[in-house]
User: What shape does this take?
Amino acid sequence: MVSMVIYRNKNHYHVLCLILDFTIMINRILIGIEDSKYAEAATKYGFELAESLGAHVGLVNVIEPIAVPMNGNGATEILGTPLQGVDSMNEMELLNVQDMVSENITQQATKQFGGKVEVTQFNEYGATGEGIVACSIEFKADIIVVGTHHRSGLDRLFSSNVAEYVIRHSKIPVLVVPGKE
Assistant: This one.
């Protein structure tokens, strides 16, 4: 069982205390990572938690589909079009580059924070939140660790919030680590 003591200050919620009942063992920790300082804070925290518990870490980096800008009028000029508009050779090159970048992100995180912790790396394709939740099931994770961006106002309105999606759709506890500004 996980219990939290939370207080609200204006529009922000703060966790004062996280109480974990260790009769439920945390043996597998899934960490959602990306190439950002916010994810780095979560990655570091997740590895430290794993080391203190002797847990196995799963690192997941999700590659989201890319919209390619097209010449035209209307919405496609702003939003682009999915990769179906790109010839198959360019599509394969783009996917290979994305794979290499994703692999590099997981390898760098393992090298920087892994230490003696057992690590399994995952590279998923699709929406980031969905990929993290799906990977948590595949990995049989006991807890998910993700970072957050501290967005507010219009920035929050126009951006997806992966942490919020994972919290709402996960069947296991989610630990959200605030990024450092």
About this structure: The chain is about 40% helix and 25% strand. The domain at 25-178 is CATH 3.40.50.620 (Rossmann fold).
